[in-house]
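Work package 3, deliverable 3.1, input record:
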Amino acid sequence: MIIENPVPPYLEWIGKATLNWLISVGALAALFALIALVFLTIRKGPKQAFPALIGGIRGALDDLFKFSWRRTWAIASLAIRESIRKKVVVVCVVFLALLMFAGWFLDPNGKDPARLCASFVYQSTTYLVLLLALFLSALSLPSDFKTKTIYTIVTKPVRSSEIVLGRVVGLTVVGTAILVLMAICSYFFVSNTLNHTHVVGPEDLVATTEADPASLAPTTVVAKGQTRLANGHKHEIEQYADGSIQIFEENKHSHAIERVGDGDLVRYKVGASEGSLQAKVPRYGKIKFRGENGFEKERGINVGEEWEYRSYVAGATDEAVIWTFEGVTPERFPQGLPVEMTISVFRTHMGNIEKTIMGALYVRNPKTGLIAETNVFNSEKYTTKALFVDREIDKAKVEARPRSLKKMGDEASFDALAAVDLPQKDAYDLFDDFVVDGKVEIWLQCLDSQQYFGAAEPDLYLRAADAPVFANFLKGYLGVWQQMVILISFGVLFSAFLSGPVAMASTFGILIAGFSKTLFVEIAHLEALGGGPIESFNRLVTHENMMSDLSNTFSTHLIKAFDSVSGVFLSVIGLALPSFSDYNFYADCVANGYDVPWNAVAVHMTTTAAFAIPLFMVGYAILKNREVAK
Amino acid sequence: MESVSDVVVETKNLTKTYRDFWGRQKVRALKALDLQVKRGEIFGLLGPNGSGKTTTIKLLLGLLFPTSGEVNILGRPASDVAKNERLGYLPEESYLYRFLNAEETLDFYGRLFNIPAAVRKQRVAQLIQMVGLESAKKRQLREYSKGMTRRIGLAQALINDPDLILLDEPTSGLDPIGTRNMKNLILQLKEQGKTVIMSSHLLGDVQDVCDRVGVLYQGELKELGRVEDLLKIVEQTEIRVDGLSDDAKRKIEAIVAEDKAKLLFCGNPTTSLEDLFHDIIAESEAHPGKRVRGGENAQ
């Protein structure tokens, strides 16, 4: 799975994130206070403006102190009841209808049907739930204003904070209930679409030897064949001398098979598909590269691809991609290390295109430099390969001299290590000889000359035990939930001072801008191709391309000046803009068969709260100062 | 002099000007209103449409912010949410959630007062019975007639057993029986020692229930006083006696004749509030400007 922006460990992230948050919220609060001061000066005159602002802040603190959960919950349950009586559940019916017809355009015969189905259900749920959240949140308070029911609320001892929070909580409960329903329906849809079996008859297996099976070793293959076609694929089958039979993996799943009866009455019973949906728990290491001279590097060679996600090492040289893993203990991996990798291959000459490129995997002791070649493999581009590093390592595989990594400016350590002769042992143990304080290095080398292997940090990982699939499927929906909460918070905020349609359009604007936050920030910082908004517009109408310099005229300077000013304004908006595309990570994890890491959940949950809290505060401040009956 | 604690509502120089988006003055809805309402009285705000009655009530409730002047309600400023604890409000039209039924409506508003569940249940049942909606308590308000909606509206205003009740046009849209019931309810509230402020343009209603009235016209207070004082025709005397002897009658007639007057009736006759109201309007149009005639302020 491609992870371009890995989620940092929570404890590393929280300190810096809190600081950034405080700065952003502080800046926005100062801006808000300034606007309020200007407004108050116009309304009450310069002398009374400041005391009025202080009074407002004190009132807000007082409201916070007298905040009642019971009243908030009363407002929330009203929102829930309103949604139910207004038949919000219809969205679920739309979703079910969508699933019913999904079969028309989802091809279960593809190479990776699980990914296709899971992506589809996550995408459609995200769109439906976010649209629902958008409508409900942006229209709820305006409809109270329109029908004037708000008069009967604010003339009760209800604080504006309780009205805003009550709405957010109520709509979140409604959205959550709908999301859970959709998640359960989706799970059954996906597992039902993927579930299939194959027919295998005695005639599908062809004997490979005429010898009496009893005279052969139990693991000798006596018959080979294929299952019949189902869901667009067949599986290879092998039968062994001891009578056992095995089905091989195809399209990322397998089946159980059982032989029933004997002689002419033999039948094969094939079970349901297994492992279509997975929740692999990867343990990632830190990546570095070894250059040709043994120097440690942060990145490998650039083979000229524009996308710099992966970098490359040359084949048949000393270059290697190195992953350093921590926390590798015999308790966690009693049998050895299950390694999975998905690497890229770059060929400088095609040669025989059918012939795959050879590669090798090594384990190395990061302290002593002791290294052993554990696996040699044929690589296929972007195909996930599962390898196993056994616990016992053959002494023939262990190199006589340690291989070293030279740090820039620390060549002495390199030479010292290179000169060491390690004591030779008869048997080597992975944990005793290669792991130091839970740390081990895995090296990847390309063995074919003039060919290259490319890798990024998440491309190779240790596969620890798998997580429960259904729980992971639900966990994937946390991403949709978090987006929903942020959107509801925005919707309620806008609806506190805008009319329904305008609040909806504004919330929709946040959604669109949030999905392309990177571009938005680039535009705000005037780093995007084609310049700022006004310059881009100018290029559009004058048919100028994005790259060429604009002529050095007064109007160009004026445009650039306007863009600089609007850039500041957009940067401020950018601070308050959530990055919705970050949440695709959840769907990607589930669709690619990975467990959603709790670390990411914690980081994103904190981010969600970091948005919801200030939005709530702003919504409260606006509603409190709004003339309800105007 | 009244003690301060007896004054439940007080406005000082209360003014409201509506402005458009650009801050330009659109209309002055209320001009320098000075008003005091005392504990236990029924005060009527009277005026034609657009005279500032509803604006006054909204300013008292904090639904609108005054352009200038002050409001003190139950000893607190109008912007203080805590005043709502002891206050009930029936809006012009019952603005309630139409997807709730009567019980749910009252229960919801009860929860906003943090009333414990058991007390709430009892109070909801009692109010539904009081406004006579027992047979319709499970029906959604969207199915209610106008009269029923007014009644449930009144019930929600009383859910917290308030000390002060503001009723905006309480009898509007009600049939004669509904109007009579509403007026009886208001009088019952007075008996319970509650203070009621009601606005209306239906003069008969105000005359029947209010102790004091204030007449508003074009945002100005034109008249303020006790209803019976306002309606008294000071120039005329009306004598109405039961069982007066002919001799006594002759004596009275003689006295009247001596005064070169003609005895029609002995006692103070009253005008109808309607006549008074029309007089005020006519006079205001003839002589624009703020003034309060008659009543307590004139003394």
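Chain B has nine helices and ten strands.
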